[in-house]
């Protein structure tokens, strides 16, 4: 039971003060005039002013509450290194017993694991949540049992009591880690890109000056180089192919280091072409020439060289030579000396006229077989005796003309194979496409792929692979009608863009492809094929174990599945002859970026309430009670602040000046002053 005097004023305190001041002024005036009742007047004023303050004696029945000590035990991945987890668990049991043995003390033990994804150790978040669930007035101390490597220091709360760190780990620990300083998201094919790496030793390292570094591209055989330790190293890397390139850097595990989880780094770079060089040769001016030119010029990544034969050799009209074009057609330079500089050659309604000798066209054939690409947009001349097919180039063309030209209108249609082929897949709305007015009848080779057809399923767009190169034949010169919007038009630009990029071997337009798109620890596996079905995808995890994934067909020729990777690292995907690699998450998670136990990051938070740090390997500290604001840590001891919190069970109030007493005292003092001063006046009279 505790008691105290409390006030419950009838009027605001400022008004009571004014009334008290007026009463004091009246008493002072009486004293100045020498009135003998001034003391009684003063007593009456005191009683009245005190009555307005309404004092009471309050007595409380209190129940003492226990002090609460929070103990956060770090069980994140970095605590699995060495013997940290075992020593931390043993220290937690001992400290919990010591704290619980203190009088009037409760212990709240909170185990903190890894955050979601790669968010690391969230000790301050866990502490904030724990403080929100307990009365702050009862928190006497906070203990963290951790290696000090946390990743949410910016969320540290205001502390109501001292915070202490019991540090796991050992003084002799050391670790080596690989850091990628810079890595671009894109790089130009054929040009080296410089990556900056650094290998650092931390802790009680043996002092090595150099180490081996292994470099592997797309999971291939690694190349090994020797690099210095503790210095930035610039490595020039040339991407081997377009699309996603996965480069893995690894430094071998050294004897005695804590972990090899931070000895590997994954870099994923998209390879892109600097410029696509296209040679467009138009046999004669016609309405479709502008369509090809506009398509290729609209792509800023395309360098276009366009020649149109305006004056064929057989034209004899007597125009003086001095009035002809001053720009000669550089046939030798283009078709013999610099043909390998082009990614694609397009012959638009070209026929043999003697401008390109057979040796030049034979060189174009050789260009295709060694990896080049040729597209022929055929007009009526393709069915004539001067057809390009009847030249050395005909050996690699995907279809042979029958010499028949169909002049009836028709709507182009995507074939069943074309619905699966990346060049024409997804080109919907064929029923609303405008008509073309001419088609050259051709007979495709056995190896060719017909992806679009005209009337009576006659081949319209024929594709083929020859040697290392690719060829395509569009058996009509009427595609330009779509660009003019004739009868509603059609997807002419998209079709020709895909066709050109497929011929230039852009990875996103390969018929047979397997790739994956990563989102966090989940990968979206995509398999594109011309076959009716595909097998299961074999997923090889970073630890070497394998798992199979069944794909579902989501569109003709496109099979997909989602796979959740159980760990961070490099995954290899295999289906038949198709193979790819993908990295999930960083190769070194945040938990393993820095592994040496240290209290440095937590020092500002510890100092805010004068807490301290103790290494578990040096022995557990004793517990002392310290006053609020006093140093809470010393040699071999850590302190907690007893809060002496309580719960009020009952409250009793007894007025010190009941109304009848106030009336009696005030009236008595006033009457007494009046009588005394009246008697004095009577004696004077």
Stretches with pLDDT under 50, minimum 5 residues? none
Main pleated-sheet profile:
8 strands, mixed
Number of helices: 11
Give the class from helix and strand content and strand pairing: alpha/beta
Determine the N-to-C terminus distance. 61 Å
Average predicted local confidence, pLDDT: 85
The strand order across the widest sheet is 16-15-17-18-24-23-22-20
Tell me the overall shape.
elongated
Estimate the strand proportion.
25-35%
Helix content bin: 10-25%
Rg over CA atoms: 45 Å
How many beta-strand segments?
A: 37
Q: How is this fold's topology laid out?
A:
Blueprint: E1 2-7, H1 13-32, H2 38-53, E2 55-64, E3 67-74, H3 84-101, E4 105-112, H4 123-133, E5 139-146, E6 163-167, E7 174-182, E8 186-188, E9 193-203, E10 210-217, E11 223-228, E12 232-237, E13 243-250, E14 264-272, E15 276-282, H5 287-297, E16 302-308, H6 331-337, E17 344-348, H7 358-369, E18 373-377, E19 399-406, E20 413-414, E21 439-444, E22 449-453, E23 459-466, E24 469-474, H8 480-483, H9 492-503, E25 513-519, E26 522-528, E27 537-540, E28 546-549, E29 552-555, E30 558-564, E31 569-575, E32 578-584, H10 603-608, E33 613-615, E34 622-625, E35 633-634, E36 637-640, E37 646-655, H11 659-684
Parallel strand pairs: 3-4, 3-5, 5-6, 6-33, 8-14, 15-16, 15-17, 17-18, 18-24, 34-36
Antiparallel strand pairs: 1-2, 2-37, 7-9, 9-12, 10-11, 10-13, 13-14, 19-21, 20-22, 22-23, 23-24, 25-26, 26-30, 27-28, 27-31, 29-30, 31-32, 35-36
Helix pairs in contact: 1-2, 2-11, 6-7
How would you sum up this structure, described in words?
With 685 residues, this protein is α/β, with parallel strands linked by helices. Helix content is 21%, strand content 34%. The chain contains eleven helices and 37 strands. The strands form nine sheets. It has an eight-stranded mixed beta sheet. Strands 4-3-5-6-33 form a five-stranded parallel beta sheet, sandwiched between helices. It has a five-stranded mixed beta sheet with strand order 8-14-13-10-11, with no helix packed on it. The longest helix is centred in the last third of the chain and has 26 residues, at 659-684. The radius of gyration is 45 Å and the shape is elongated. The chain starts with a strand and ends with a helix. The mean pLDDT is 85.
């Amino acid at each position: 039971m505790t008691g105290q005097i409390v006030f419950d004023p009838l009027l605001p305190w400022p008004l009571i003060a004014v009334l008290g001041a007026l009463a004091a002024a009246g008493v002072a005036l009486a004293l100045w005039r020498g009135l003998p009742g001034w003391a009684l007047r003063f007593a009456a004023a005191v009683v009245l002013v005190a009555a307005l303050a309404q004092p009471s004696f309050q007595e409380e029945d209190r129940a003492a509450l226990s002090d609460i000590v929070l103990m956060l035990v770090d069980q994140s991945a970095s605590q699995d290194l060495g013997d940290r987890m075992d020593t931390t668990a043993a220290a937690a049991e001992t400290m919990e017993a010591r704290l619980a043995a203190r009088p009037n003390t409760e212990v709240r033990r909170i185990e903190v694991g890894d955050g979601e994804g790669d968010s690391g150790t969230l000790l301050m978040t866990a502490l904030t949540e724990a403080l929100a669930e307990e009365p702050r007035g009862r928190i006497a101390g906070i203990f963290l049992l951790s290696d000090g490597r946390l990743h949410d220091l910016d969320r540290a709360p205001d502390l109501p009591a001292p915070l202490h760190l019991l540090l796991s780990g050992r003084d002799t620990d050391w670790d080596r880690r690989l850091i990628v300083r810079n890595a671009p998201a894109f790089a130009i094919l054929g040009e080296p890109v410089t990556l900056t790496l650094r290998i650092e030793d931390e802790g009680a390292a043996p002092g090595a000056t150099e180490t081996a570094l292994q470099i592997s591209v797309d999971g291939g055989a690694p190349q090994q180089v020797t690099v210095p330790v503790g210095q930035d190293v610039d490595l020039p890397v040339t991407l081997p192919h377009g699309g996603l390139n996965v480069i893995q850097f690894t430094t071998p595990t050294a004897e005695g280091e804590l972990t090899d989880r931070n000895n590997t780094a994954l870099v994923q770079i998209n390879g892109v072409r600097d410029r696509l060089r296209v040679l467009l040769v138009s046999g004669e001016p016609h309405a479709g020439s502008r369509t090809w030119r506009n398509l290729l010029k609209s792509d800023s990544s395309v360098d276009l060289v366009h020649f149109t034969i305006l004056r064929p050799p057989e034209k004899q009209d007597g125009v003086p030579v001095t009035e002809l074009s001053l720009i000669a057609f550089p046939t030798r330079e283009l078709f013999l000396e610099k043909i390998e500089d082009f990614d694609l050659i397009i012959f638009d309604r070209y026929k043999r006229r003697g401008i390109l000798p057979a040796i030049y066209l034979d060189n174009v054939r050789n260009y295709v077989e060694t990896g080049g690409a040729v597209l022929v947009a055929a007009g009526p001349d393709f069915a004539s005796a001067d057809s390009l097919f009847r030249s050395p180039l005909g050996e690699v063309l995907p279809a042979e003309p029958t010499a028949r030209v169909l002049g009836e209108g028709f709507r182009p249609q995507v074939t069943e194979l074309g619905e699966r082929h990346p060049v024409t897949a997804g080109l919907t709305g064929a029923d609303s496409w405008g008509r073309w007015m001419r088609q050259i009848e051709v007979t495709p080779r056995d190896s060719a792929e017909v992806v679009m057809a005209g009337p009576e399923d006659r081949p319209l767009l024929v594709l083929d692979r020859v040697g290392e190169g690719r060829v395509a034949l569009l058996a009509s010169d009427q595609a330009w009608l779509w660009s003019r919007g004739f009868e509603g038009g059609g997807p002419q630009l998209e079709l020709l863009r895909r066709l050109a990029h497929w011929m230039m071997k852009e990875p996103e337009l390969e018929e047979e492809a397997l790739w994956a798109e990563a989102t966090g620890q989940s990968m979206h596996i995509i398999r594109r094929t011309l076959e009716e079905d595909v097998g299961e995808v074999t997923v090889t995890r970073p630890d070497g174990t394998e798992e199979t994934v069944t794909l579902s067909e989501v569109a003709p020729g496109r099979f997909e599945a989602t796979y959740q990777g159980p760990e961070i690292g490099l995954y290899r995907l295999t289906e038949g002859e198709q193979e790819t690699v993908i990295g999930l998450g960083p190769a070194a998670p945040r938990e393993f970026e820095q592994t040496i136990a240290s209290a440095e990051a937590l020092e500002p938070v510890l100092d805010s309430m004068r807490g301290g740090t103790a290494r578990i390997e040096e022995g557990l500290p004793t517990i002392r009670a310290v006053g609020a604001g006093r140093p809470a840590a010393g040699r071999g001891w850590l302190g907690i602040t007893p809060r002496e919190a309580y719960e009020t069970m009952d409250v009793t109030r007894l007025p010190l000046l009941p109304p009848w007493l106030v009336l009696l005292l005030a009236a008595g003092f006033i009457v007494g002053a009046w009588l005394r001063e009246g008697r004095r006046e009577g004696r004077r009279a």
